[in-house]
Design a protein that fits this description.
Elements: E1 3-7, E2 19-26, H1 29-37, E3 45-48, E4 54-55, E5 60-67, E6 72-77, E7 81-87, H2 92-101, H3 119-122, E8 126-127, E9 130-131, E10 136-143, E11 149-153, H4 154-157, E12 174-184, H5 194-203, H6 210-224, E13 232-236, E14 242-243, H7 245-254, E15 260-262, E16 268-270, H8 272-278, E17 285-286, E18 289-291, E19 298-301, H9 307-325, E20 334-335
Parallel strand pairs: 2-5, 3-5, 4-20
Antiparallel strand pairs: 1-2, 6-7, 7-12, 8-9, 10-11, 10-12, 13-19, 14-16, 15-16, 17-18, 18-19
Helix pairs in contact: 5-6
Bound molecules: uridine-diphosphate-2(N-acetylglucosaminyl) butyric acid.
Length: about 325
């Protein structure tokens, strides 16, 4: 069924109230094909997953397709590994918890990341020292023009930091319908990320399992990141910028303790949240929106903000960080 003039407020975690000119839901590959076949080909498409990484700045003159493909299926199993194929409309965190409850390891550090499974390879989601590219096996995606189903392996996805081929060369050409991940039955626990280690100590558990790590990550995220159901937001609004050693050295003259992460090519990744905090934006409220008081990388909607208000706030931050540190922040959230 194709509906018209539908409010997208329930479908984006910023809680922005704009309308889509047409709207349809699909729960299977066949339903998706049928919507694509019967659509008005003049109207551009927009595929909506969890709506957790978008900022809507205007009514969308688009055909918005809400992905509700469900299902999780074990497709391969060995003594040490298990491969699971997951419907792209499944909530990412439900999938993480399913694997953790079986004792399977690999994605527990990415507990509570908002969004759907279909969005996870789009931007190679990651947190606390893990990225999906390390457990990803393949995905199936429907080519919108030909309605053919194509399979992509890891290499073909061209994963990078919050990047994949689906954000670049193949943008808007495919709808991801399923993703397969390979988990470990004898997991190697990764608690190298400082905050996890200290949270586990606070939790005071004897045996560290994938569930312990998942719980620790959930505790950390809940303590620092606002729940979109309570306070509209889209997680990290900016990417952490990668700069040359010279730019880092310049910043270290004033701030010897600036957090930085060396990259393989000799560049350095800075913490955007730290830069924004040092520039005095943390907790600042402007009109209906602001910079979260506990994590400066997150912009929040206090209720009734327009997408443009939030966009303008992000522009003011970018300009200010550039003038104070000579670093250009890039938005991580997709602007529509
Ligand atoms: N920091 C500050 N002030 C702040 C925020 C951070 O000084 O307001 C400092 C922290 O003290 C730390 C450093 O900046 O030294 C990094 O902070 P944190 O560990 O909180 O992580 P992040 O770099 O701010 C990234 C991801 C998050 C992910 C966390 C944990 C990006 C853009 N963001 O944030 O992902 O949860 O690491 O791994 O890479 C998301 O993408 O939506 C997201 C939440």
């Amino acid at each position: 069924m194709i509906e018209h003039n539908i409010s997208l407020k329930p479908y984006n975690t910023f809680g922005i109230d704009v309308k889509a000119s047409s709207f349809g839901r699909f729960g299977s590959l066949d339903e998706l094909k049928s919507l694509l076949q019967n659509r008005d080909k003049e109207t551009p498409l927009f595929i909506l997953g969890g709506g957790s990484n978008i900022l809507l700045t205007k009514d969308l003159p688009f055909f918005v397709l809400k992905n509700e493909i469900s299902g999780m299926e074990v497709i391969d199993e060995t003594e040490t590994t298990v491969a699971v194929k997951v419907g792209s409309g499944v909530e990412w965190h439900s999938f993480v918890r399913f694997t953790v409850e079986q004792g399977w390891g690999g994605i527990e550090n990415m507990s509570l990341i908002p969004g759907s499974v279909g969005a996870s390879p789009m931007q190679n989601i990651g947190a606390y020292g893990a990225e999906i590219k390390d457990t990803f096996v393949s995905l199936e995606a429907l080519h919108i023009d030909s309605l053919e189903l194509h399979t992509f392996n890891r290499e073909q996805c061209q994963f990078g930091y919050r990047e994949s081929v689906f954000k670049r060369a193949l943008k808007d050409q495919y709808v991801i319908v399923s993703v397969s991940y390979q988990l470990a039955k004898n997991p190697i626990i990764n608690t190298t990320y400082g905050a996890i280690q200290s949270e586990i100590e606070v939790m005071g558990v004897n045996e560290i399992t994938v569930d312990t790590v998942s719980q620790a990550v959930m505790n950390i995220r809940r303590s620092k990141l606002p729940d979109p159901k309570v306070l509209g937001n889209a997680g990290s609004f900016f990417k952490n910028p990668v700069v040359s050693k010279d730019v880092l050295a310049q910043i270290q003259m004033d701030y010897p303790d600036a957090p930085h992460y060396p990259q393989e090519n000799g560049d350095e990744k800075l913490a955007a949240g730290w830069l924004i905090e040092k520039a005095g934006w943390k907790g600042k409220r402007i009109g209906h929106c602001g910079v979260h008081e506990l994590q400066a990388l997150v912009l929040v909607n206090y209720g009734g903000a327009t997408g443009n208000e939030i966009y303008d706030l992000s522009s003011a931050i970018i300009t200010d960080i550039h003038s104070k540190f000579g670093v250009t922040l890039e938005r991580e959230v997709n602007i529509l």
